Amino acid sequence: MYKKMYKIIKLFFELSNVVISNVFYERSNNPNKVQRFLSRLKNTGIEMTSYQFISAIIFASIIFASNIFAQKSLTEIKNEVANTNYKEVRIKEIPIAMQCWTFRKLSFMETLDKVQKLGIKYLEAFPGQKLLPDNNEKKFGIGMSEDDIKLVKAKLKEHGITLRAFGVTNFDNNEAAARKTFDFVKKMGIKVLMLEPKYDDYSIIDKMVKEYNIKVGIHNHPKPSKYWNPETVLKNVEGLDKRIGICGDTGHWTRSGVNPVEALRLFKGRISNIHLKDLDQFGVKEAKDVPFGSGKSNIHDILAELTLQNYRGTLSVEHERNDEQPDPSASIAKGLEYIKSITYYQGFDEILRCDDNGNYNKHGWNHYGPGYFELDRKSGVLTSSGGMGLFWYSAEKYGDFILDLEFKCLAPETNSGVFFRVPNVVTSNDYIGHSFEIQIDDDNPEAIHRTGAVYDAEPVKINASKPTGEWNHYRITCKGNNVKVELNEKLVNDWNEEPRGKIKDFSLSGYIGLQNHDSKAKVSFRNIFIKEIK
Description:
Elements: H1 2-24, H2 33-43, H3 50-69, H4 74-82, E1 96-99, H5 108-117, E2 122-125, E3 130-132, E4 135-139, H6 146-159, E5 162-169, H7 175-187, E6 192-195, H8 203-212, E7 215-219, H9 230-237, E8 244-249, H10 250-255, H11 260-266, E9 271-276, H12 299-308, E10 315-317, H13 329-342, E11 349-350, E12 365-368, E13 372-376, E14 381-385, E15 389-398, E16 401-409, E17 416-422, E18 436-440, E19 471-479, E20 482-487, E21 490-496, E22 510-516, E23 523-532
Parallel strand pairs: 1-2, 1-10, 2-5, 5-6, 6-7, 7-8, 8-9, 9-10
Antiparallel strand pairs: 3-4, 11-23, 12-15, 13-14, 14-23, 15-22, 16-19, 16-23, 17-18, 17-22, 19-20, 20-21
């Protein structure tokens, strides 16, 4: 069926070219081309007259164009969000930044002290904040002297804080004004610039983003400001560089009666930054900031949605409540504890690395033996090919740890496994006799060789695997000589290691490895996280 559809589509494109040349340019050397193409179309099982064909081409062109240029609306997004089970999402740890506006009554230097005490490592500065506590003249932003810039960089380093973002600011719609801002941002090492343009033509912004490689987030204030409706921003950034997206202010969306989760879904793939707030009322302009998790903005589902989108930016905490000025640290600390409590991967390292643009890579990994693992750089899915080999993480050895990952068997006879504490650099098959393997093999009738078993050493206690083609979840905890294996949230093994089967001796520290067994036993892995137990 698909081959037939492909032939029809291909013919329609060829025929549309003929129509253009005959009908619009009236200079075809062979007016019988349409008839010949109609004969070819007839061979696919479709008959039509020339008039019907031309009508079909015009109709198809309209549909094709409308699909290309159509953008989803919040109304359409509502159903998607309603059908997403956010409770099942394993929320990733998203780096926290502080939007300095939170401490707007304090100087920039005083803000650094507050941010450091909160344990926050990233910062978003805003233009116009007093630079020094005892000087009302010097302000943070464009126009700072070279000496002041050096002072700021030195103090950031001293506090262990990275200046990642700047905004919200604006500039006139001309290249000279734009360059002034982008030059400053580049000099400060800032990665994301927040704007709220008064104009709708972003062509100069687009040019600057491409030249400077700096992301831009269009910020929203509450209704009736220009960008309160996220659909307005989406329309303005359509067709521009993907590094131009939204700086989603969850509090201002909440004030405006816009569901922040739906707004984020609307901007899937185009979220440049987040101003994270929680408010005590929804759809009320006078609503007040409250600690995360205690308000109406639905912080849990916001973080779950960002996890689903593999958002790689930071969360800029912004607490605007005037009656808590000049220091709302207590409310912020309470909110940060809530975020930690709902973050599944809190304290974990993602060892299949991903850059700021959402592209995964194999840095730190090596492969020994036949075959390989193919990586989808956007989804972060590893898929085995051939074998038998071992894809092992050579960047670090682990002693006591929790390893958390997902795997999917691509065939009933899939055979693979997760090796741990591989003692030495893998240069031969010798590792097989000196490190344990948590098995992946749903088809094996022997419990000691089935998914969840410590291969050839300790049988799996219960079967908890999902059907072929579905993602499974492994959590492997190694502490001392004890190993616990959880499969799809069920404890399937709890064993104290000792030499057994193929294992003659073993180490309590070593590398992590994923097995590619053979060409018929394909397996996929994703979301590979590890946390050392200290």
